[in-house]
Fold this sequence. Notes:
This protein is of the alpha/beta class. It is about 45% helix and about 15% strand.
Amino acid sequence: MPLDVISVVGARPEFVQAMPVSRALRARHREALVHTGQHYDYLMSRAFFEELEIPEPDWNLGVGSGSHAAQTAAILTGFEQVLMQRRPHVVVVRGDTNSTLGCALAAVKLGIPVAHVEAGERSFVWDQPEEINRVAADRLARLHLCVSEPARQHLAHEGLAQTAHVVGDVMLDALMAACEAAAARSTVLSRLALTPQAYALLTLHRAGNTDVAARLEAIVAAINSVREPVVFPVHPRTHEALQRAGLTLGPHVRAVPPVGYLDMITLERHARLVATDSGGVQREAYYLGVPCLTLRDETEWTGTVEAGWNRLVGADPGRILAAWTDFVPPSARPPIHGDGRAAGRIVEILERTFDAR
Ligand code: UD1
Ligand code: UDP
């Protein structure tokens, strides 16, 4: 019997993650896609659906931006309406956004089981919005699909070992699926007049950096001091924060609007160095073998740090600038997040759990 699945997306990383999971699910089951509308600018949303051929969402809740409470409340009530029209066997949520938490909570309150992809990740910093979302979503979920063994262990410590499975990273599935298309179609290097290995790539959007003036100023001061072209696709949150703070970027910093996924992975692949506070970009840098400086004090993706390819530099100009020139990762890069076939495993586990074979 095929499964009826509702998959939830809302923010940029969820569109990337949806691509491999939708493909694997739709080969054997019925999937409807709900877009909460958390991200809505063309370059933050629609562009991904067109480029990655993600199925058209069956519903768009159109929640837009707002305070955490307003946005999560709109997601809760909007998603509840969908679930009352179409009751699936399972709701699949991903990661740690307000869309993840809002939809998980709406489903559970209607007695519909939730599967959480990227379960068990922890920063252990409780006041981060993402940590609250991921801990709460894990508590609500019936099934926990983990990127790696440490995530499964976090869940085991929280009493959730029975429902936790290590499947690998669907972001790696997406990257492997898109590499060829990126090589064939992306023109970003020539458009931005970049030479491979002769630039660094920067992304920045965590509230902990953009909304704390001292951290934003310190990071901008550090980036303005590096002696290398820096390409910086700017998240809308960061664009607003930079304007609010009246900060300007040096002439070597090429700030551009958010780029599409194929351009992004092309920029990552050919960068000498990546500096980021993004969870997805930290992992992609690792998979592509590009040294990564993480502009945070801690990370969920500890395996990339332990492997020596990711260094935590916080928002400290001294640490950022020292690592910018000194950081040399080792030659080994073990496959810490699986083999790029996480989506197929997720479908098999859904089938076993919900008796759909
Ligand atoms: C959200 C996630 C974060 C994730 C990030 C991926 C939460 C709490 N945070 O952060 O974990 O890493 O997405 O990118 O869910 N905005 C626009 N246009 C858009 C979207 C946002 O202008 O299409 C601006 C708005 O001013 C908005 C701000 O960005 O207030 C923040 O957007 P929001 O969705 O609340 O959180 P993100 O910072 O994007
Ligand atoms: N990304 C993109 N264009 C950009 C910035 C990021 O396509 O301008 C991709 C990136 O390659 C990764 C995902 O978006 O696949 C990560 O999203 P983001 O950094 O917004 O969120 P996080 O992973 O931190 O939650």
